[in-house]
Design brief:
mainly alpha; two-stranded antiparallel sheet; 2 strands; 1% strand
Length: 512
């Protein structure tokens, strides 16, 4: 009997039809780092964080890292028990039932759509910055910011390209990411080294201080609103590492690889943020004039202002290219978790069955990716027309979404494993203590952020009926989700009766 050629052997697929055995620890971490997009995230969030907490930027990065790190263990433990593309949606449904699970999944989908719009916006800004520098035409810089028509059309075009690439599946995304992630990380390190070397000669520069790193000291003088805004920006900065966990069904070792990749991703991102935070503070300071990081005129795009002063004309071009690469890379990978969450919700009939379809050629949830791209384009267009500072408002709203579904997942870990929490030291620490502390921290930030978002002054000033736009984007869209959930319950009651994904708990004796 003839042997079938290796390139013609049918690929191994997961229960939902995804391509299995494709993602290892390193590639999973790379995809997670790409989704976090350190280059894009830093240029969009440094100004926001400094405006809120000043010299405490490194400390607030650490403060934002702590709940992310603790919650990462909840993800790891839940994935080891139940590997599923739905991740937070699936685990919270098993722990708390269909209603909490549906709202958790909805929060994740919304968070991703908000991030996709931000990524595309930053990508467009740096695209026109590069063109302006490359062809020595300064007037082109404003095309990516002040000209709303050009900005919206270019953003939609960039989203369309990223949507197409993501629809082609995990293998295409993974290959591209190694190059894009590697390039942006190298340029960020080089930028930081040069900034350190030039720090003493810049007006407003600062001398290093260990007090910048203490997340518990010196914050008492800050208002609750300022602290919440800074912490929200920090939590936003770490968003995306859970992409590693949504790839469990496509991993080489589904029980262990996603958790290890997630932890490696979070630690790498923290190191990068602290390096760049120190470099920019020591070089430019936190003042409100010139290149100071507290200057509102550069707060939406810090690297756009610092690139050439630090690295020179052509070196600055490399930084522009790195941020553009960061945004483009993250655009592709950010589609991965939202498409897979919608795939799982479709498979369990929490979403329309169409979302459960898999592309037979690429073994990817192409329909979910397409819907995410379309909704993102509509969302970005609407927010851009209403708000003058789209990035700031959406980042603040995103913090609300992140705390919502990360926090639910952290508490889901504790409740799901409740019968075995104290069976051994491992369970006490990693299934009880870490997730509980992470969940409490995220819940606290969520409550404060929602309260502060009601005040337009805590965002761009954009408001509807006297209530800040941030509230409508963040908490308001969660309310819209609750209405849609009731519609889905009427249309597809099986999920809400617990028939397609029932609540469950592992046996008391079950431990890792």
């Amino acid at each position: 009997m003839a042997t079938q050629p290796a390139d013609q052997i049918d690929p191994v697929v997961s229960p939902k039809g995804l391509a299995a055995n494709k993602v290892g620890v390193m590639s999973g971490a790379v995809l997670g780092i790409s989704t976090v997009a350190p280059g894009y995230t830093l240029t969009a969030s440094i100004g926001l964080i400094v405006a809120a907490v000043g010299l405490k930027m490194p400390a607030i990065f650490i403060a934002g890292f702590i709940p992310m790190f603790l919650t990462a263990y909840a993800y790891r433990e839940l994935n080891a028990d139940t590997t599923d593309a739905g991740a937070s949606f699936t685990w919270s449904t098993k722990a708390f039932g269909p209603y909490v699970g549906w709202m958790c999944g909805w929060g994740m989908v919304l968070a991703t759509i908000i991030v996709l719009s931000n990524l595309a916006a930053v990508g467009v800004q740096f695209f026109y910055l590069m063109l302006a520098r490359l062809f020595d035409h300064p007037g082109w810089e404003s095309l990516g910011t002040s000209n709303k028509l050009v900005n919206i059309l270019t953003t939609i075009a960039l989203l369309a390209i990223a949507t197409y690439i993501s629809m082609r599946g995990i293998t295409t995304s993974e290959r591209i990411q190694y190059w894009l992630v590697g390039f942006q990380m190298i340029v960020l390190v080089v930028f930081s080294i040069i900034a350190f070397s030039k720090a003493g000669g810049q007006i407003g520069h600062l001398d290093f201080s260990w007090s910048w790193f203490n997340p518990f000291g010196g914050l008492g003088s800050l208002s609750i609103a300022a602290f919440a805004l800074g912490l929200t920006g920090s939590i936003f900065a770490f968003w995306g590492w859970d992409t590693c966990l949504t790839l469990g069904e496509e991993s080489k070792d589904p029980k262990r690889t996603p958790g290890r990749a997630g932890l490696l991703c979070v630690l790498t991102i923290l190191g990068t943020y602290l390096l760049v935070a120190l470099a920019t503070m020591m070089y430019a300071g936190v003042g409100t004039e010139g290149l100071g990081l507290g200057n509102e005129e550069i707060s939406d795009n810090v690297f756009g202002a610092l690139a050439e002063p630090v690295m020179g004309r052509w070196g600055g071009m490399f930084l522009f290219l790195a941020i553009l690469a960061s945004a483009v890379a993250s655009l592709q990978t950010t589609f991965l978790p939202v498409a897979r969450t919608m795939l799982a919700m479709g498979s369990y009939r929490a979403f329309p069955a169409k979302f459960a379809e898999i592309s037979p050629r690429y073994l990817s949830p192409a329909f979910g990716a397409l819907v995410a791209g379309i909704v993102t384009a509509v969302f970005y267009t609407a927010v851009t027309l209403v708000s003058e500072k789209t990035l700031g408002d959406t980042i603040a709203a995103l913090g609300i979404m992140i705390c919502w579904y990360y926090g639910i997942t952290a508490f889901a870990c504790v409740w799901y494993f409740r019968h075995s929490l104290f069976d051994n030291p491992h369970n006490i620490v990693f299934r009880f203590l870490f997730p509980l502390l992470g969940g409490i921290a995220l819940l606290s930030v969520f409550v404060v952020s929602v309260k502060e978002s009601l005040n337009p002054d805590n965002g761009s000033g954009a408001q509807i009926f006297g209530i800040g736009l941030v509230f409508y984007i963040g908490f308001g869209l969660l309310i819209v989700g609750a209405v849609l959930m009731l519609v889905m319950r009427a249309v597809s009651p099986a999920f809400f009766r617990g028939e397609t994904l029932p609540r469950s708990t592992p046996e008391s004796a079950k431990t890792l």
